[in-house]
Amino acid sequence: MTEGVQPRAAQQAPPWWKSAVLYQIYPRSFADSNADGTGDLQGVIDHLEYLQWLGVDGIWLSPITVSPNADWGYDVADYCAVQPDLGTMATFENLVAAADERHIRVLLDIVPNHTSEEHPWFVSSSSSTTDPRRDWYVWADPKPDGTAPNNWVSSFGGPAWTLDPRTGQYYLHNHLSEQPDLNWWNDGVRAEFDKIFRFWFDRGVAGFRIDVCNVIVKDAGLRDNPPATEDDDFEAQLFGQRFVYNGNRPEVHDVIRGWRRLAESYDVARVLVGETPVKVDTMVQYYGDGSDELHLAFNFPFITAPFAAASMRRIVEDTEALLPPGAWPAWTGSNHDMSRFASRWADGDLRKARAALLMLLCLRGTPVLYQGDEIGLCNATVEKDDLRDPLGVRYWPAYAGRDAMRTPMPWRDVPGGGFTDPGTRPWLPLGPFGGCNVEAQRSDPESMLTLARDLIALRRLSPALQTGSYQTMAAPEGVWAWRRGSGVVVALNMNDHGVTLEGTRGHIWVGTDRARDGEDFDNRLTLRGWEAVVAGTT
Ligand code: GLC
After folding, report:
1. How far is the CA of 52 from the centre of ligand 1 (A)?
2. Is the CB of 303 within 6 Å of ligand 1?
3. Phi and psi (nearest 5°) for 136?
4. 212 Cβ closer than 6 Å to some ligand 1 atom
5. What is the layout of strands, in order, in the sheet containing 470-472?
6. Active-site positions?
7. How confident is the model at residue 2 (pLDDT cuts 50, 70, 90)?
């Protein structure tokens, strides 16, 4: 047996989500079982065999609850019912049961910051200033001159306040005006979300991805945000202000601690994965003391970093250094908002995409793949007339929105891509995908998909890859290399030219060039441009 690899039985089991590979499904674009052009929950059930073959341990589904789709499910009108075009509660229960048979856990997306304007709570809240649910949302009087209560801007652009002519007050929305923000100072809101969490946990949901969990609590005094200065980051400059009072408030941590207690009250603790689009030093605060807030937090500076050795290494080192003891990183390269890594990091260059995949699956932490990452799917081009994302519709052509990374999964090289029937128009176009499809890659030992599957299988065999420490190694310019535990080395040559890494001996387990699997090296590990390997050391 190679050092660092042990049979499963000999391992000491960490919590399941620490050694897991998670996989994000955007249900509307995964698989359409009833040929209406929209992916659905039955489509997910139909592809569980594939997910088990790939080796993922858990899936998180972008919202499946009732929504008028102003923001494609992220505007919820009923937190405890399934959106009809995605399925029924019975289909969902079948999904959880069928996934369980294949040892795959199901996580859902929860959106606590805001509801849909069509949610009965908001319908009630906006009906009068004395409505019992009035205080469930953030309402405020206009300034004496009739303008908005403060200077906050929406993260989707424009003012964060809309005047309700009926009651003469403004309501707050950090996103679209169709997404009014809940008032998390209200105990009724908090109690209701505890019930919603339990509702799904009791139905076998293994955890939640929590939408923009860092902004749910706002400054109680609704103070103006300070203006951006020249020294501020791009985001502050873009919006003209620093997001000081409408997000990352100290009180949000009380809410998250409450959710953590709730999650831990189940015999198999449910996992909380937060969407935390903030800098690393702020992101790590959402882990609390390492045991009392989020289990996992998405690392956005990592996603947006240039795919170069120095920048990626620095973010990983900073994250490792700043995380509280016991906290566990999460690494992701793509999601339904942030573009696909095969485009953003790799610019369609398969060598880079393969190196990125190896990186994600070999860092210390939980990798979260987005559907299509495993086949190296790039962003699609979506024409103006086909746009569905409200941001694309609003800002095109300056910004085409997020449709390019939400296009349907190409399963086979046939019209409709095996996503939907050949004669059906999918809700978003597939774009030309050619060989970038599951069927073609599944039988190809050299493919990105086979690489993904083999790396996931390798993680399962190697406790060092699952839970071993991360330690940067000295490496030539443009090379990022690290040890996992004591017996594993991972090296990425992020140069166009070849390099030699000296001072380590071992055996390549998996390389992005599969011809090198099984190769021994003794003090000199040579890597061609954009080549990466994971190796056992001797
Ligand atoms: C999150 C979601 C995004 C959505 C936004 C508002 O960032 O990932 O898709 O538009 O929240 O809910």
Report:
1. 28
2. no
3. -75, -15
4. yes
5. 470-472, 479-484, 488-493, 532-537, 499-511, 520-527
6. 211, 275
7. very low
